[in-house]
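Structure tokens please, single chain.
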Amino acid sequence: MMLEIDSVVLSLSVGSFSSLLCVICKAVLTGILLNSATMSNDILDIYILSDDKGTIITKVYRKATHTDLYLNWHSHHPVSARMAVVRTLFHRAQTVCSNKELLEEEHQHLKTVLKLNDYPDWAIHKGSKIKQQNNDGQATVKEKKDFKGFIVIPYVKGLSEPYKRVMEKIGIQVFFKGGTTLKNMLVAPKDKDPKGKTQNIV
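Here you go.
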């Protein structure tokens, strides 16, 4: 059994690093790639710093080429998809930022960027709310509604959401799917396999 570890972050004094390296080299038989924080301090979109006491400080990392362009609020997508953009960005900030100052700084950046992407204030405020946690530290989950069935319909901006609300009142769950676009019609990254060479169809 082989255990693969993608990234390990440690805060060590200069003298302790060589000792730890010797222990790792003796324990691991395969090749090791060690990434020193002095060479690269971004791992998995996390910017890693260390204060004078050696404490690890983390915040959201963005490449120099990052444009801060997200799904525009006026785009032809369901409200749930656009709200997911807001919730995901604020959840990442809550998870990655290690102190209140960095978290507040990230929140202000997100509010500015989302407004530039035409998100209304109510959407930003609603999406930035952190889920309440119970005594065990786990997020509370809302009770799921019992539906009689479900339907899948093409999404039409301005019509699909009201229709969904009406159907859910009578116990029918509604899912949206994207309509036909020029990209769907013209772009074909892979050629279709001939019918005689198709596998795993039974």
